Amino acid sequence: MARDDALRWDSRYRESSLLSLRKPRSFLLEVEEWLPQRGWVLDLAMGLGQNAAFLAERGLRVVGVDISLTALRRAKILYPQVMTICADLEHFSLPEKTFNVVLNFYYLQRSLWEGVRRWLKPGGLLIVETMTQEMKRVKPEIDERYLLRPGELEKSFEDFEILLYWEGWRDLGGEHPRAVASLLARKPEV
Questions:
Q1: What local confidence, expressed as pLDDT, does residue 190 receive?
Q2: Which top CATH class is 2-13+24-186?
């Protein structure tokens, strides 16, 4: 399965249309004021690294993880200051209390959430945005496993301090808006 996923994503990242993804996600820009001035960031399913680069330019040390070696190679050429790890996130672990910020944009793997709790330092920030079941209205072929149920993201991190939460349709400049849930939350200090 991991090999098939890697091949599928490598193929997608070879397409020139994805190379235009040079801007950080709009939700990351919206929460910029909450970001620490220094520390470590983990970018899960980093892709071409536009979010990681934005954070590295702010002086943060960023580690990006992705299953696509093609994406990571392209990201490393564009953003050499970003550290990269090629890994299958379904079989992935890191030391506890390592990161000040964890990012997760448009990759839903619920089993990672416990890892996120461990990897974040107390007081660390979690920034997540991914699609909800409402996406079925415009893309009925999307597998339900990769879509959040209403309120699921907020409920899944109710033990965190929720700083910002939003669900609805976002125009991301693509062919159609996306139905998403966006979360900015702080891990408890204790």
A1: 80
A2: alpha beta
